[in-house]
């Protein structure tokens, strides 16, 4: 089924919140998933994997323990949403040329939208490398070195400034996204956790019945 | 300093825009009025200026009133088609609530001209609304219900060959009201970014406004068609002036309220445009006699418009009484007021601030724009934005700066005692039934786990408490250990750059009125005659007295909101002439 990018962002945001992340990080996950889908990549599948692995995790166990590289999660595996948001928060550090390495990142492809955002914010080229894949943001265009850049886990990922013409092919923008039915169901189930059970009382009071609506 | 230099200095100084801490209060937002910058008016000015052409490509409606119609608008580079489905709805299924499952008519705005195959596909999906699925060829999805009070009456009159009583039309103002108009990306529709590069789609809600404008034309054709079908020998069409007095209604509920909080940069762009326009006009050193005369005329017309505004809601009734009194006083004062010299519009507005209610002040703010299209209409091009570019956290910001920003923007929230129950009495949540946003009572219902991030004041207070305890140097360092504040930090930083982005009031207070948020947004649409039906949903009228598509090239495309004083329509034809 063809999804609008807005639908994908909304589903990803709610699912991430449903998995126990803060609203602010859920917003980041929504935008990151949308960004990957707009690159023609299966961002929703990547997110579904991350949320399955990090469902209701203690936040401090899946995020970098400190800002000094290498980044590693106290719980063993890094969540790319938490780590990605932090990467983007350090956009100026990356633009200044600091290299950040990350250990044991789940679905490292999901780091890329944050790297790209940091590149946009600072007007610098940045590249993300892991497991034989390099994705570069250079002069407002994304370049992919592999046709399928998804990996379940990266033992080591690296983010660094890209000062010269990137490797790989430029990515064409997609206007619609695709979600496999199984992923849609898994994300949908997590999103559903953000909805309050419907009751007759809430239906009447919650939306404000007031005067008649049939005249 | 000599008197001469003082005058010169005063003239060179611009009147500043109003302060966000004054503008962004709920009571004031809930008193906003439409203006030249409103989206409906922007749309009709464009359709007229670019000579858009309109055609009814299909009207296949049977005697029971079921079938479909296609209304196509042709612009300079693209065509857009309203595909309308008319239904025979049993009365007991008619409801304006989002949780309804059937409607009198359903619509989509198709990007281009639909083929037969498109119509077949849309006929299977559009009538189901949220339960159906549309595609990236469609730009909107909407539905409308009849006004039970008027529909049968108007069909009966026309079938018998008589015109309906203007007084009865006046009581309602429309034959159908839309109960939801979904746009960008909803239920499979095209995302806004897919068409946002086109001139006619760039402005906010232009697609949705076009859809509603064509919907009004369809509804008027439908009512005449039903009369003709019932009694082909005696039926007459509506008299043109009377026809134009029908707007299209709309019922809007809580679902719209979160929009203002979810789109802070966009809201800033809208309000900044209006405040910039007001400041420009207040800064004018003098006015031409024709401009002064035009303002007087608009003031008298606005008084009449306020007299025509009906509501049963006690809060709105009180506000209407104040508005009418304000406009009476304005109109009494205007004949003797000097509107030519000595920064006349700043004096008018300061008079309003000193002597009028919020309703009156905001009405006068909008009225001041009316004579000055050349000065302010171009601001409509600043009312959209690339929201995504503004959503990124500035991690390098020193924590002390974030704290100073928080204290400046949310001083009102830091002054609230959040341990008390009233300031946090409400919870915004989404119900699993049709994903409808709702507002619950925190201390009566078990809803905390489902709370939506729609309470910036409380969140800012929580952030501030943690900022005071933190020794982190930068926002990035603080966020690593405080991810729960990421949402509100984004808002603080956005509002630092976009001062009208944030509502500076408590959106979960026991006394908060969601209709204030609805009205602020609807006023930018161009809606009039706000009629709250409770504290959380209201009805409005759109496009009332506007020329119909086929009249646009001849008629007045912009100056139709306020009624003309002599009872004539915007084209100068009076009801009496039309009815003869």
Would you write up a description of this structure?
The complex is a heterodimer of chains A (215) and B (580). Chain A has 215 residues and is α+β, with helices and mostly antiparallel strands. Chain A has one domain. Helices cover 42% and strands 19% of the residues of chain A. A six-stranded antiparallel sheet of chain A has the order 2-6-3-4-5-7. Chain A has a two-stranded antiparallel ribbon with strand order 1-8. Chain B has 580 residues and is of the alpha+beta class. Chain B has 25 helices and eleven strands. The longest helix of chain B has 25 residues, at 206-230. Chain B is globular and about 85 Å long. Chain B starts with a helix and ends with a helix. The chains are: A alpha+beta (215), B alpha+beta (580). Chains A and B meet through strand 1, helix 1, helix 2, helix 5 and helix 6 of A and helix 8, strand 8, strand 9, helix 22 and helix 23 of B. Strand 9 of chain A pairs parallel with strand 8 of chain B. Chain A: Pfam families: DUF3726. Chain A: This is DUF3726 domain-containing protein. Chain A: InterPro entries: DUF3726.
